TrEMBL record:
GO cellular component: plasma membrane
Protein name: Sugar (Glycoside-Pentoside-Hexuronide) transporter
GO molecular function, a single term: symporter activity
Organism: Enterocloster bolteae 90A9
Transmembrane segments: 21-41, 47-65, 86-108, 114-138, 158-177, 189-208, 240-266, 278-299, 306-327, 333-354, 374-396, 416-440
Keyword Membrane included in the entry's annotation: yes
Domain of life: Bacteria
SUPFAM superfamilies named in the record: MFS general substrate transporter (SSF103473)
Alphabetized UniProt keyword annotations: Membrane, Transmembrane, Transmembrane helix
One GO biological process term: carbohydrate transport
């Protein structure tokens, strides 16, 4: 039997690796922006912190708004090559160019500079959405085997964690290398962005090629239905609502924590920009280990409770740092490594929770709206990111942060400490609490799958074992 005809299947390792590597590209471009774009705007491009936060907020909010549009376009795509993979190919070159343009200092007036970075951000996030939504949807459409999806997701996240190194540690290494060759700091940042964009584009292209012929041919969504009509359908489904609320809380926490690293290292700890590479490298190493561990635990135990456990561990750890403080680069390393319990737990397992929701929703309604569901899930992720980065800019401004000062005032140090500890910690704990109410567990999901087989065969079936998830 041809592999395309057998959907409850194991994926060959080259396919799983090929699918996963695009997550390296995804992480490189988004987390590089999340960790350094505000810093670049304030310290290199000369933009005030509050305005820098607004630039990031507007760009990410546009990304969030465009998600449902791209998701629906992907669901309705009728190309022979598939309804997900063509979007990956289309987005590759624009992402490389626009990542470079975002980290290019322009000698404009303050107003024109603001307009330039907003416009480039909007185009950048549009190109990212063209890749991201179809890619995440593809993860649910290579196999219907639930455990195999978890294994593929674990591999995907190993690449994603490696991407965190490229996104977080490599930029400062590249900037230092370019500056060491006599290149100006502004130009060094542009070349670093070009390098990272090229790495991301190459990874996305490899995934496009490696998954050829493996995308399940689901029938496209009807083009007669208004694009936003599907929103009303999926937002009435409780498990889906819980997942998207959890995604908002986590990404608010994650981006607050991630953006604070370079400020906390310089302002509170008193180390150098280059020392942030040590922090990010340590986080990457811990993240790779956790990716493998969490993937294995989620196959043995119920992934819902694995998610909750790791999210809560990180939340409590970060809250503790509010009271013990940051006194050395070692403290910053420990904080970031503990944050990875939540970061990796979410990145490995959240999409599997969402894929389960998509399958149960298909059983309930007969519609496989993976693209729509992932697009609104992504909307709340980006809403969390936009809100966090806007909050970072406002908190820095209110705290009196001034990039021209060698020593920052105590109010700025307090603001940065809060961004690195109690704010993300409490949000992570709230995220864990929300997922406690998520009703889809392993027993109910497998009962649903058995009922679906009987339903497809035209036989009688009962929903009594899994009524709660419908």
């Amino acid at each position: 039997m041809d592999h395309k005809d057998n959907y409850d299947r194991l994926l060959p390792m080259p396919v799983k690796l090929g699918f996963g590597i695009a997550n390296l590209g995804d992480t490189v471009i988004t987390e590089f922006v999340g960790a350094f774009f505000i810093f670049f705007l304030t310290n290199i491009a000369g933009v005030r912190p509050a305005l820098a936060g607004t630039i990031v907020f507007l760009g990410v909010m546009w990304d969030a708004i465009s998600d449902p549009i791209i998701g629906t376009m992907s669901d309705r795509c009728t190309l022979e090559a598939g309804r997900r993979r063509p979007f990956l190919l289309i987005s590759t070159v624009p992402l490389i160019l626009l990542t470079t343009m975002m980290f290019t200092k322009v000698n404009f007036s303050a107003n024109l500079k603001f307009v330039y970075f907003v416009v480039v951000s909007v185009f950048y996030w549009t190109a990212y959405t063209l890749f991201n939504i179809p890619y995440l949807s593809l993860g649910s459409e290579l196999t219907t085997n639930n455990d195999e999806k978890t294994r593929a997701s674990s591999i995907r996240q190993v690449f994603g964690t490696c991407g965190l190194f490229f996104a977080n540690a490599l930029p400062m290494i590249l900037v230092s290398l370019f500056k060491g060759q006599g290149i100006s700091e502004e130009r060094a940042w542009t070349l670093a962005a070009l390098t990272l964009g090229a790495i991301a584009g190459t990874a996305i292209f490899i995934t496009w090629r490696a998954t050829r012929g493996w995308e399940i041919k689901y029938p496209p969504q009807s083009k007669d239905e208004p694009i936003f009509k599907s929103l009303g359908k999926v937002l009435t489904y409780k498990p889906y609502i819980l997942v998207i609320v959890a995604s908002f809380l986590f990404y608010f926490a994650f981006n607050t924590c991630n953006a604070s690293v370079i400020y906390n290292t310089i302002v509170v700890v008193g180390a150098t920009e280059a020392d942030t590479a040590v922090v990010y490298l340590a986080g990457t190493i811990v993240g790779v280990i956790l990716s493998v561990l969490i993937g294995k635990l989620a196959v043995v135990f119920d992934k819902k409770w694995v998610f909750i456990t790791f999210m809560a561990i990180a939340g409590f750890a970060l809250v503790i740092f509010k009271f013990v403080g940051f006194h050395s680069i070692t403290d910053q390393v420990i904080q970031f490594c503990m944050a990875h319990f939540a970061i990796i737990g979410f990145l490995v397992l959240s999409y599997n929770l969402l894929y389960d929701v998509c399958e149960v929703y298909e059983f309930k309604t007969g519609e496989m709206l993976t693209g729509v569901m992932i697009s609104y899930f992504s909307f709340f992720i980006k809403l969390g990111k936009a809100t966090a980065l806007q909050a970072v800019g406002i908190l820095l401004d209110l705290g009196g942060y001034d990039a021209s000062l060698t020593i920052q005032p105590d109010s700025a140090k307090a603001a940065v400490t809060n961004m690195a500890s109690i704010i993300p910690g409490c949000l992570m704990l709230l995220c864990a609490l929300v997922v406690c109410f998520y009703p889809i567990n392993r027993v109910r999901f497998r009962a649903m799958q058995n009922a679906r087989k009987l339903k497809d065969e035209g036989k009688a079936y009962s929903t009594s074992e899994f009524d709660r998830i419908l």
